[in-house]
Amino acid sequence: MFTNNLGYPRIGSNRELKKACENYWAGNTTQQELLHTAQQLRLQNLNLQKEAGIDLIPSNDFSLYDQVLDLSLTLGAIPKRYNALGTDSLTDLYFAMARGYQQNGLDVTAMEMTKWFDTNYHYIVPEFYKDQEFTFFSKKITNEFLEAKANGIITKPVIIGPVSYLLLGKEKEAGFERIDLINKLLPVYLEIITELVANGAQWIQFDEPFLALDLTDKDKAAFTHVYNEIKNAFPNLKVLLATYFEGLRDNTQLAVSLPVCALHLDLVRCPEQLDDVLAIVPEGLSLSLGVVDGRNIWKNDFTASLKIIDRVARKIGKSRIIISPSCSLLHSPCDLGLETNEATLSAEIKQWMAFARQKINEVVVLKQLANSDNITNAANSLKENITANAARKTSALIHNTAVKNRVAAITEDDAKRNSPYSIRKNIQALALQLPLYPTTTIGSFPQTAEVRSWRAQLKKGSITQSHYEELVKKETEETIRFQESIGMDVLVHGEFERNDMVEYFGEQLQGFAFTKNGWVQSYGSRCVKPPVIYGNVSRPKGMTVQWSAYAQSLTNKIVKGMLTGPVTILQWSFVRNDQPRSTTCTEIALAIRDEVSDLETAGIRVIQIDEPAIREGLPLRKNQWREYLDWAVKAFRISASSVSDATQIHTHMCYSEFNDIIQDIANMDADVITIECSRSQMELLDAFADFKYPNQIGPGVYDIHSPRVPSKNEMVALMDKAALVIPQEQLWVNPDCGLKTRHWPETKEALTQMVAAAKDLRAKQ
Ligand code: GLN
Ligand code: ZN
């Protein structure tokens, strides 16, 4: 039996890599210093895994920015626009591909970035062209193998497999299919393997997550072709083929027929696949059992994992078993040992958790238990594990009967507004008296360094709560006055009191805990620190009412209340794994519903419930979409449906395509939806137009990601374009998203132009 790891987090327990990269980009340190920090991190991670007792330790899992971009550089898949940069420094070329380059008279855009399957990690999308060539260009994979070898560790290099690499990319011109590039790509993979083997590699891990997704016949044929060729060329190489984030399902036969040494299964995400695999596993194929959750922060249930291991051992024997985390630990925070703040993460909750470092140990202990090695130590670990998990099951912290009863008592009516939109529309028109092309914003106004410093001071205790609130109130008042002065129709309070759109709510909800250092890489040097939902969620008291009511008290104009929706709160947290996600989402929905009711009672007549993460929650396999969308849309409706017909509910979504979920967006039945649209030149609206979407829509008219101030005429032109496909009575005028990352000068200028654009549009009637 072997222990194995698929990948270790590279950011460092104290985000050393983030700091090193950002310092280098800012010109504060040399490249040598950056590369030195990177090497230190790699060696630390290697040694830590070796000392823990991992047999198959990964290399090439490290990355300065992103592992897919690393591979593009390895394969020489460098778009031509970077030619001007030269190849004197591969590191600078690499960062230019990741982040764009604007220096020395050059102006080259970055490569596109997109989400890595259903995680919150983002990768740099490979660009493929008709005449695409590949070469073994960067030697990172060899260098990192040799570095580890010099350090006394023969690693298992990790590389994204050729089929998944092609499928992860994008055709940048018409006239070819990227999967057809496989014949040009395979020889370069063979070259890479040759070099690794020549240097002493025995195992290589090929990540092929697409093998667990929906595949075309062509994709399937490519898998068979590639792995047979590799087998022919290297009969003695031990190939570990890794799938994760889903189950093999209809690809089981294909997967077990590939001539590889070991197949890795994500048994956390899809435990059901084990039976299918065991039924047809061929003689000689080892199975890597991904039993330790690489995507969440809960302690493993040793008893359950040992049952799985035992079941497999009976079928194929212990020697063909590899014990692993479910996927790369890239998606876990680094080290629970650093969590020492009892106030936000109590010892009771902490004992139920495990981060990457602890998960590595879990893998090792599972092997000891299954193999009866190191008996005393393993038995103690098992006892401790059983106690902790039993304590979690029965803890009073987790069980809130009132919440459970409330969830059980939900009726269809709770998820329905009193009247259909066709009736609400007229009631709201009378109540709100808005002009044609009403103007609004998405919620946040600039979170200046000053605003953030107030929160930091409050945390440190250098200002009092009431002083802090005075400062935030003043900022809110100025923002209200600014919006009045330019003639905005529906105002917002500016969200100055919020650190983050999920954390702010999590901190006030029961059932949430927070880590101090539980950072996970999101993209490049950007990390996120998701809250931990450990128990039944409830809302002890108002979370936003005082701020919205205060803002409304300052003006006769309508002030919009601003909330984050249940699906987005769920999606951007670590979620408890002892009840279905849909149940947790429904609990959050009820908490938001209470807030919506309280806002209405406090005189707030328009309430926005943001759901930017609805789309990213979609399951990876299409046939599971229906189930997810049903509960996700229902959760939104539960949160939104307690109000009277006269209260207008908005929702907001960004970075979304809507074509294939437009019916579900319509089922959310928000009176108004605002979407990101400007960067697609209103193309995202087509889905709404084709569907004849009945409710109101605000297609974003300017890109908030850039400091550029759009002209009035530009925005008029975009709205005219929108009005060609959506009746103008249904249209709102607003930016793409919140303004928190912008500065005040451009914000003021852009919104002034935007309101002027709306006035022009009205005057044209
Ligand atoms: N109301 C939030 C804001 O304006 C919405 C942010 C988002 O959609 N990501 O900041
Ligand atoms: Zn947004």
Automatic annotation (TrEMBL):
Its cofactor is Zn(2+). Zn(2+) 1 binds at H652, C654, E676, C737. Residues 438-759 form the Cobalamin-independent methionine synthase MetE C-terminal/archaeal domain. GO terms for molecular function: 5-methyltetrahydropteroyltriglutamate-homocysteine S-methyltransferase activity; zinc ion binding. L-homocysteine binds at I442, G443, S444, E495, D610. L-methionine binds at I442, G443, S444, E495, D610. It comes from the Bacteria. Residues 3-315 form the Cobalamin-independent methionine synthase MetE N-terminal domain. Zn(2+) binds at H652, C654, E676, C737. Pfam families: Meth_synt_1, Meth_synt_2. Its EC number is 2.1.1.14. It catalyses: 5-methyltetrahydropteroyltri-L-glutamate + L-homocysteine = tetrahydropteroyltri-L-glutamate + L-methionine. 5-methyltetrahydropteroyltri-L-glutamate binds at R15, E16, L17, K18, K115, N120, R526, C527, W572, E616. Pathway: Amino-acid biosynthesis; L-methionine biosynthesis via de novo pathway; L-methionine from L-homocysteine (MetE route): step 1/1. Binds 1 zinc ion per subunit. GO terms for biological process: L-methionine biosynthetic process; methylation. Keywords: Amino-acid biosynthesis, Metal-binding, Methionine biosynthesis, Methyltransferase, Repeat, Transferase, Zinc. The active site is at H705. HAMAP family: Meth_synth. Catalyzes the transfer of a methyl group from 5-methyltetrahydrofolate to homocysteine resulting in methionine formation. Belongs to the vitamin-B12 independent methionine synthase family. This is 5-methyltetrahydropteroyltriglutamate--homocysteine methyltransferase. The lineage of its organism: Bacteria, Pseudomonadati, Bacteroidota, Flavobacteriia, Flavobacteriales.
